[in-house]
């Protein structure tokens, strides 16, 4: 895979703008962080991403996208195993190619019809972050030349954050809940906020509290045997239902019911563009 990546970077150097040493650095970052992040994921079922770290390291136009992909996605795929990655990535590529060639103005919320589901929020965040870190660059944001230089202190705060919980759990061993304080989960839980909305966190929290507090206490044997299976079943059910709804309704331009929670912000002006010169139907013109 490294050889194929090297071929891609050197063979398409004008498009990717990532030199061979940048690829090796990205792979080294992925290799270095696979074990510690794997430990966090194994114990918490949460995988902190390396996207911000890789963006901060390279911060250089199009090379930012390639460097972030090889440094962040390589680590993520290593933890999700190779065979599943090959199947999933091939299916994802074929699906993405089909959608991009069959849906007009996909991923462009300014040109799509009102209420269209094809706004690509996750890909939009990935792309916008690459532009911000690549075009503007970390030098103009997080150094003495930028306005966000104080945010670098959060690297130190993140490093020190687990220490108080560890110290208190050792000092008061009889207080069992102190051992359950996990700062990677508490801090990292907000990493999905763009593009996730508040309603998603409410749903996740309600399901998590019900199964990991009530069911865990009342039916511990059932919880130990079926909770992770149920979690996978819920994820798979949403994916399969999405496929069924697309082929039976959306692909035939049949508008489905207005489900509660789809209008998550309940603010009609939230989707209005803020950049000057861009006009969207239903939005005020300043």
UniProtKB/TrEMBL annotation:
The keyword Transmembrane helix applies. The chain crosses the membrane at residues 20-40, 78-100, 151-168, 199-216, 228-249. It is a multi-pass membrane protein. It is found in: Membrane. It comes from the Eukaryota. One of its GO terms (cellular component) is membrane. Keywords: Membrane, Peptide transport, Protein transport, Transmembrane, Transmembrane helix, Transport. InterPro entries: Oligpept_transpt, OPT. It holds the Pfam family OPT. One of its GO terms (biological process) is protein transport. GO terms for molecular function: oligopeptide transmembrane transporter activity. The keyword Transmembrane helix applies. Belongs to the oligopeptide OPT transporter (TC 2.A.67.1) family. This is Oligopeptide transporter 1. The gene is OPT1_9.
């Amino acid at each position: 895979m490294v050889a194929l990546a090297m071929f891609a970077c050197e063979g398409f150097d004008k498009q990717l703008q990532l030199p061979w040493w940048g690829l090796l650095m990205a792979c080294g970052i992925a290799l270095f962080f696979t074990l510690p992040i794997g430990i966090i994921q194994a114990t918490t079922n949460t995988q902190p991403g390396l996207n911000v770290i890789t963006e901060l390291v390279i911060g250089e136009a199009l090379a930012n996208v390639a460097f972030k992909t090889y440094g962040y996605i390589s680590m993520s795929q290593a933890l999700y195993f190779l065979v599943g990655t090959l199947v999933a990535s091939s299916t994802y590529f074929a699906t993405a190619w089909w959608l991009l060639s069959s849906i007009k103005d996909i991923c462009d919320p300014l040109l799509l019809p009102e209420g269209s589901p094809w706004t690509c929020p996750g890909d939009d965040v990935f792309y916008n972050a690459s532009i911000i870190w690549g075009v503007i660059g970390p030098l103009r944001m997080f150094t003495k030349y930028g306005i966000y230089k104080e945010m670098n202190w959060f690297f130190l705060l993140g490093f020190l954050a687990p220490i108080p919980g560890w110290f208190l759990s050792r000092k008061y061993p009889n207080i069992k809940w102190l051992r359950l304080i996990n700062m990677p989960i508490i801090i990292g839980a907000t990493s999905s906020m763009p593009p996730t909305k508040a309603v998603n966190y409410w749903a996740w929290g309600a399901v998590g509290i019900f199964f990991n507090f009530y069911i865990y206490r009342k039916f511990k044997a059932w919880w130990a045997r079926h909770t992770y299976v149920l979690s996978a079943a819920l994820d798979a059910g949403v994916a399969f239902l999405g496929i069924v709804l697309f082929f039976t309704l959306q692909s035939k331009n049949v508008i489905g019911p207005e489900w509660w929670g789809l209008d998550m912000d309940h603010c009609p002006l939230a989707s209005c563009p803020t950049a000057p010169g861009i006009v969207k139907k239903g939005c005020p013109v300043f």
